[in-house]
Write a structure and sequence with these properties.
Blueprint: H1 16-33, H2 65-79, H3 86-92, E1 103-104, E2 113-114, E3 118-121, E4 127-131, E5 139-143, E6 162-170, E7 173-179, E8 190-191, E9 196-200, E10 203-208, E11 211-216, E12 221-226, E13 229-234, H4 254-258
Parallel strand pairs: 3-8
Antiparallel strand pairs: 1-2, 3-4, 4-5, 5-6, 6-7, 9-10, 10-11, 11-12, 12-13
């Protein structure tokens, strides 16, 4: 071919490269005629596993395998609770789309920014909560005008900026009063409207006209902030009568209310 520095002589046999080409072609034909084999000798196509989707909440933090299993077990347990319990009521409420809850402001006056954590507030903005700013294991909420312990515990680090109006919830349960610099709460999070819940990894919170109810799904422990103040709660506690008006949680008869434990709900 012109330009490549090679021209076969007409008065000799084909060069050895020609024979190598024929050998390669023959080998290719043999390979094409053989049955196809997968990785490690498997002849079957590999299975593609699609993880399940939570139809009620389009996005959550990515939990570990252990926490995901525990969350499923806890959700099943709460669904099996009597209809008049706090856990059943919180579980039955429709959930918001978590993808709308990544915005928050560092201060009350600073602009909103996108974060990897989740930030939400009640319609009155009297309670604001964040998770992800301090890891997945703790939900931190700031309740305006509602103060807990005025002084930190004796083993609190000296760098702690104590905030009596901050509530934290983790696997150990709720605490009213915490270090604001260790558990920061973003401002102006997206509102969770009344009768809706937000479920983020290990936590589920119900926004209701009577207050905010939050549970740690593995332990069932949590807290409520209502007009009566701060209170520690558990998923198996009887729900306040105001909560039982949420769609899907009302009981049809008194027999249904008492069938599981023999104890009627309290107001």
């Amino acid at each position: 071919m012109p330009g490549y520095g090679f021209q076969r002589r007409r008065d000799t046999a084909p060069p050895r490269r020609f024979h190598r080409v024929l050998a390669y072609a023959a080998a290719g034909a043999i390979l094409l005629s053989a049955p196809a084999c997968g990785i490690a000798g498997s002849t079957d196509p590999g299975e593609i596993v699609v993880p399940p989707t939570d139809q009620l909440s389009t996005e959550t933090e990515a939990p570990t395998t252990t926490s995901a299993s525990a969350t499923r077990q806890s959700s099943t347990r709460e669904t099996n609770l009597p209809k008049w319990t706090i856990g059943r009521t919180v579980t039955a409420a429709p959930r918001v789309d978590n993808s709308r809850y990544h915005k928050g402001a560092v201060t009350a006056d600073s602009p909103l920014v996108d974060t990897s954590g989740f930030h939400f507030t009640t319609p009155s903005r009297s309670v604001s909560c964040s998770t992800g700013t301090n890891g997945r294991d703790t939900l931190a909420c700031e309740a305006t005008g509602l103060e807990g312990a005025q002084n930190p515990p004796s083993n609190t680090p000296s760098t702690c900026q104590w905030a009596p109006d901050v509530i934290i919830l983790n696997s150990s349960g709720p605490t009213h009063g915490a270090c604001a610099n260790l558990y920061p709460v973003m401002h102006r999070g997206t509102i969770v409207n009344f009768a809706q819940s937000i479920s983020i990894s290990r936590f589920t919170c119900l926004s209701h006209i009577s207050g905010l109810y939050c549970l740690q799904v593995q332990s069932g422990n949590g807290f409520s902030v209502t007009s009566d103040g701060y209170r520690e709660i558990n998923a198996s506690d009887a729900a306040p009568s105001a909560l039982l008006g949420i769609a899907g949680t009302t009981t049809s008869t008194a027999d249904d209310e008492t069938s599981s434990t023999g104890m009627p709900p309290t107001s």
